[in-house]
Design brief:
The complex is a heterodimer.
Chain A lengths: L4 E2 L4 E2 L12 E9 L6 E3 L9 E11 L4 E8 L9 E11 L6 E4 L6 E3 L3 E7 L8 E8 L8 E11 L3 E11 L7 E6 L4 E11 L3
Antiparallel strand pairs in A: 1-2, 3-15, 4-14, 5-11, 5-15, 6-10, 6-14, 7-8, 7-9, 7-13, 11-12, 12-13
Chain B lengths: L4 E2 L4 E2 L13 E12 L2 E3 L9 E11 L6 E6 L9 E11 L6 E4 L6 E3 L3 E2 L12 E8 L8 E11 L3 E11 L7 E6 L4 E11 L1
Antiparallel strand pairs in B: 1-2, 3-15, 4-14, 5-11, 5-15, 6-10, 6-14, 7-8, 7-9, 7-13, 11-12, 12-13
The chains are: A mainly beta, B mainly beta.
């Protein structure tokens, strides 16, 4: 039980509120990466408590150059290998004012593939200030009736250098529950970054 | 003063809690309401407290027809002039029907510029015309990385169509961003509300 202290006008030092709704966004876990790790996994608290889960990845910085930030999902067992069909497109613009374009990227989508899905790409470690940030929504992961939809939007610093606006969406083509999510780069470690997982209150 | 009740193992009927206790994921930091204002600036509350800040701009209504809602960032001193590289595209569809359009907007992006970034291409000033949307700013106090931002807006275009504009980019500085300024490209902000939230 939390310790609760009163003064004349307010409550102090409350560390838990048993019956007070905490609001729409409920922070479930934070992976704070401060030294190189091969991946960042969330393997608990993804269940039927919430219908929507939100991952926020902030300043994800790779150890390698020209690498892609990726995600995969666990649908039973211990492997992150759910079958996925996805679609991706982007908008981009270089710092030298060239390469301004909006396009679909056939090389980044999956057609019932089990591999990792790119969230953003071509970011690097050429400069210490390069990174990417964004969000990933995962809908109703515990459903055993429907496929599991997910959507991501991110901003990233491309290696060349350029600004990338990355859109990715798709579904895990399985009726098994999704109970884990894993993030990594296509090559090399995650050098640093923060990933937070939230559940969105049902009511 | 709020009434608070205790039972044996929990608190109930609490209507307010000390500011030091987070109320959940989205924490309202400040609200600004325009009234024929030249700009709406947020110059406090943007620091290392949160890793992500969200601005929600609601019914931004310009004095001048077809003005563009714009944003800029402060990276030290008093000027809103952080160097930025951005990329922009839109989807639009007129009230009269016909084909919609999805295209890159080279006239609204920035390549290492310090000027204001367009958040809309055109907002009408008719009585019922306005722009609403949201701007996410990531880790503004970080002094190692560039500062990413993501924005999407929907506008009542001056010639009677809807336009969704998507803007992302980064302030290409390692200095902390400690202020954000909104204005229209010409004329004042006649009315509108901008709310600043921190994400726990």
């Amino acid at each position: 039980m939390a310790l609760v202290k009163y003064n004349n006008r307010s409550i102090l030092n409350v560390t838990a509120l048993d019956s007070l709704a905490s609001g729409g966004l409920n922070l479930l876990a934070t992976n704070n990466i401060t030294s190189g790790v091969s991946s960042s996994s969330f393997t608990s608290n993804i269940d039927s408590t919430y219908d929507t889960y939100l991952f926020k990845f902030i300043n994800m910085h790779p150890a390698s150059t020209n690498t892609h930030f990726r995600v995969n999902f666990r649908d039973g067992g211990s492997n992150f290998d759910a079958s996925k069909t996805t679609t991706t497109f982007f908008s981009r613009h270089k710092e030298d004012d060239s390469n301004a374009s909006l396009g679909y990227d056939n090389s980044r989508d999956l057609a019932n593939g089990t591999g990792y899905q790119d969230i953003y790409f071509d970011t690097g470690a050429n400069a210490s200030d390069e990174c990417g940030s964004g969000t990933l929504f995962l809908f109703s992961p515990s459903s055993t009736t429907f496929v599991k939809h997910f959507m991501s939007v991110s901003s990233s610093y491309g290696d060349t250098p350029r600004a990338y606006h990355n859109f990715m969406a798709g579904y895990c083509n399985t009726t098994s529950a999704i109970d884990g999510v894993d993030f990594k780069f296509s090559s090399g470690n995650i050098d640093s970054g923060v990933i937070k997982m939230y559940g969105l209150s049902k009511s | 003063m709020a009434l608070n009740f205790c039972n044996n193992n929990s608190l109930s009927a609490i209507t307010s809690i000390p500011a030091a206790i987070s109320g959940g994921g989205l924490n309202l930091i400040s609200t600004q309401t325009a009234s024929s204002s030249s700009t709406l600036s947020f110059t406090s509350g943007i620091d290392s407290t949160y890793k992500e800040y969200i601005f929600k701009f609601i019914n931004m209504h310009p004095v001048t027809d077809t003005a563009k809602l714009q944003v800029n960032f402060r990276d030290g001193s008093t000027a809103f002039d952080a160097t930025k590289t951005t990329t922009v595209f839109n989807a639009q569809h007129p009230e009269a029907g016909g084909d919609g359009e999805l295209s890159y907007q080279a006239g609204n992006d920035i390549a290492q510029g310090t000027g204001y970034q367009d958040l809309t291409r055109n907002t009408g000033n008719g009585n019922d015309e306005s722009t609403s949307g949201m701007l996410h700013l990531f880790d503004p106090s970080n002094t190692t990385f560039v500062k990413h931002f993501i924005c999407e807006s929907n506008s009542y275009f001056g010639n009677d169509q809807t336009e969704k504009l998507h803007i992302v980019g980064y302030c290409n500085v390692t200095a902390a961003i400690d202020g954000v300024d909104f204005k229209f490209s010409s004329g004042n902000i006649d009315s509108g509300v901008i709310k600043l939230y921190g994400v726990s």
